[in-house]
Amino acid sequence: MDKYQADIAIIGGGGAGLRAAIAAAEADPSQVIALVSKVYPMRSHTVAAEGGSAAVTQAHDSLDHHFNDTVTGGDWLCEQDVVEYFVAHAHEEMVQLEHWGCPWSRMDDGHANVRAFGGMKIERTWFAADKTGFHMLHTLFQTSMKYPSIKRFDEYFCCDLIVDDGQCRGLVAIEIATGKFVFIQAKSVIIATGGAGRVFRENTNGGIVTGDGMALAYRHGVPLRDMEFMQYHPTCMPATGLLFTEACRGEGGFLLNKDGYRYLQDYGLGPAEPTPRNKAMELGPRDRLSQAFWHEHQKGNTMQGPHGPYVHLDMRHLGERKLRERLPQIYELAEEFMGVDPAHEPIPVLPAVHYTMGGITADGRTASIIPGLYSVGECSSIGLHGANRLGSNSLAEIVVFGKVAGVEASAYAKTVAPGKASALEQQADAICARALAILSNPAGGERIATLRMEMAVSMENGCGIYRTAREMQATCDKIAELRGRYKNIKLDDVSRGWNTEWLMALELGFQLDVAQVIVHSANNRKESRGSHQRLDGYEQRDDVNYLKHTLAYYAGDAAPRIEYSDVKITKSKPGIRAYGAAGEKAELERKQAGKTSG
Amino acid sequence: MADAKKTIEIEILRYRPDQDQEPVWQSYQVPFTDDMSVLQGLQYIKDHLDGTVSFRWSCRMAICGSCGMMINNKPMLSCKTFLREFYPAKIQIEAMRHLPIEKDLIVNIDDFIGKLESIKPYIIPKAARSLEQGEYLQTPAQRDKYEQFSSCINCLLCYAACPQYGLNPEFTGPGVLALLHRYNADSRDGASAERMAVVNADTGVWGCTLVGYCSEVCPKQVDPAAAVNRNKVNSTLDYFYRMLIPKGEASE
Fold first, then answer.
1. Is A233 a catalytic residue?
2. Helix, strand, coil: what percent of chain B each, to 5?
3. Which residues, at least 6 apart from A203, have a Cβ–Cβ distance to it below 8 Å?
4. Domains, chain A, ordered by start
């Protein structure tokens, strides 16, 4: 086992991890930062984000508007102090990225342009065509090369954290190319490993999005928060789940059922108008749009393709020129993967799992309950998204809170002495032994791909757009069974160098733990809120009993222990969540009520 | 699955350093539907036929740059190449050419990363600006000057295509030269003079013999050959300016 001494270790080299690394390097250039990623940083899944990144920019917009959109969009399950911090710091982070070279799309006068996005009252989404995540990631990756104190461990797979005496002290990783272990000792550790969408069958996520960091923190006693809230993105490619950005609708695209009818007007999102109206119709929030698809399917209004039901994303009226300029990647995906020319034909789409709203419980400064352990980005639950994330808030989140995590981890690292080497190494040896045990095929028999597919199908059945106790219980049982069978997996490949089957086995272990948290959290929440919608007698939001965060604690082979904690409300009391004309009426009423009471 | 399954033969050039003296071909029969990519074919093999087959992949949508390989002798991204294009003939898949094979379809890309780091791939501002001053102004026309070159996904297909890189690995190569040009052509940047040392070197743009295959195989229309050619002009101008003008005043 190799050893490496760092001040700060960061797991994950996507947007959040890179932003944290740069922030730490700027905070104190004398500290050594180990950036550990199982892929080269520019392969991280930030790369696939398309539409944009939110920040209040226009004169007629305000931080309050962005705050209200986010809290309402999250169905009041957001930590409101965190949202306040976020909206206040998003713009400076967009400018920071601009100074670092991000090729933001521009207006004729040279200022950065903004576009409309779902659930956002005013256009405030910064974008780089429809490759915003790609450009942010490459900008951050290339900029990170300026800082000699950032020591990259590219293609190192983190298999566990070292926690000693209640303090996070580093991690153990596998050098993928050789299969050798390295113990990276650190005074603070930031988890920035992204979401867990691959526990579902049809999803927009890359193969690497397997919830690794969530499972690591969870196994060490950090509760995973609000994991029942999985976002289904309404416009994805049938079969593969590949994403067609919300910007398709921000630019004016329509959603049509089999009769060519803009069906969203039947679900409280109207009126239907020929041009986009913010917070209405196609610019409603993702949970509502995915739910409308489900209802259309029940009514028999969807179309049937080889991979199931679909509706049409129609952008023909935008014209080829605008599509090529604003949505070049979407154009390419439709043409090359589906043989559809979006300037002349509508694109078949359906909802697919996209984003993990919940994650590792973190306070507003990204700290966990374990001193020295931080989390940021999709793996983290800092409390920004509540029960439903608004499109373009997550790219802003990774930079706003990536910076916070880097600054905090840097400051904390200065306050602690290095741990006791012998005790830590003993732990590290035990971690290596556990990881190697999988290679020895102790019991044998079960195939990774079989277990993974059974998990993914069951999660889709149990934790879909609409949920019932019966289906959720079936999935709880299934995941428990799979966790048992996981102990009998057999690998074809028992070599050490570039054994991707071994890594997939470790990932599957992470995924099963996270899947179990998702379904148990869902089954325990007896109400409907945001992306968690039930059909079995709990169709309404229940603020009396469930204006609460779910906390899931690890309990070994048993199911997680579920507890609840309060939601931080600062200035927005839970109210009616409505969009379209109804939303405008509700907002007016809220304002008038505010005037009379204040 | 959608339609009746056909079966295609996929041959993979295997190299497992712990057991193979040299690469060997291995053949697999893969059932497929017309919407399946070559990557999905490989995933089928790994999941169901042979878990030892090793390859990189992630996003499945031609943006992460992981899954470049030689498919019937041509550098391609396996996620956006479809099995139906080859059927009923077999497909032969190998690791990307000109790069050291670590295992099966996985190549070592350290050389590329080192070259990328060497060109200072970040904005070195022409004029300092604080965050409070807001963004640099950059018109759409100014953005157009570099945007195409900033779209490089670092997939390295152009390195597998470049005969010069095959002959001389010291050659900076198409992808990194395109990214170098991306920064030099950015109106916010003031460090093109520093980067011209890389451009002017024998292993810089003058290593290119204008084959143009790099641009043909690029999956994102970055056109690295255009970047190289523009820098041949820049390099020539740089040379003449340095003849005529005192050093340090030549940069644009």
1. yes
2. 40, 15, 45
3. A197, A209, A241, A352, A353, A354
4. 232-352 (3.90.700.10), 428-557 (1.20.58.100)
Chain B environment of A146 (Cβ under 8 Å): 120, 122
3-state secondary structure of B23: coil
**Residue A520: Cβ within 10 Å count:** 23
Q: How far apart (Å, rounded) are the C-alpha atoms in residues A69 and A121?
A: 7
| Secondary element (H or E) of residue B232 | helix B224-244
- For chain A, the average pLDDT equals 97
B147 and A492: CB-CB below 8 Å?
no
List A233, A312, A525, A577, catalytic entry: A233
> Is A464 in contact with A503 (CB distance < 8 Å)?
no
Q: What chain A residue is nearest to B107 in terms of C-alpha separation?
A: A177
> In this structure, what DSSP letter does residue A228 have?
T
Please state, in angstroms and rounded to a whole number, the distance separating the CA atoms of residues A488 and A509: 12
Are B134 and A39 in contact (CB < 8 Å)?
no
Burial of B204 (0-12, 13-18, 19+ CB in 10 A): buried
Interatomic CA distance for residues A416 and A372, integer angstroms: 9
Overall fold of domain B110-244: Fumarate Reductase Iron-sulfur Protein; Chain B, domain 2 (1.10.1060)
Q: Is B75 strand, coil or helix? A: strand
Q: Using CB atoms, which residue from B61, B129, B153 is nearest to A99?
A: B129
Q: Which residue of A has its CA nearest to B121?
A: A142
The vertex-B3 CA angle with A245 and B41, nearest 5°, equals: 65
Q: How many angstroms separate the CA atoms of A103 and A113, rounded?
A: 11
| CA distances to A381, A459, A462, A507, A576 from A228, in Å | 12, 11, 11, 20, 22
Query: Tens digits of per-residue pLDDT, A370-425?
Result: 999 999 999 999 999 999 999 999 999 999 999 999 999 999 999 999 888 899 99
Residue among A108, A135, A332 minimizing CB distance to B150? A135
CA dist., res. A191 & res. A39, Å (int): 15
Pick the CATH number of B6-107 from 3.90.199.10, 3.10.20.30, 3.40.50.2300, 3.40.50.300: 3.10.20.30
Among all residues of chain B, which has the CA nearest to that of A492?
A: B51
Answer whether residue A589 shows pLDDT above 90. no
Closest CA to B72 of B51, B95, B44, B91: B91
Report pLDDT digits (tens) over A235-257. 999 999 999 999 999 999 999 99
Which segments within A27-128 are labelled E, that is strand? 33-37, 53-54, 114-115, 125-126
Q: What is the rounded distance in angstroms from the CA atom of residue A587 to the CA atom of residue A577?
A: 9
As given in the structure block, the two tokens for residue A236 are 């994805």
ipTM > 0.85 (yes/no): yes
For residue A215, give the H/E element and its range.
helix A212-219
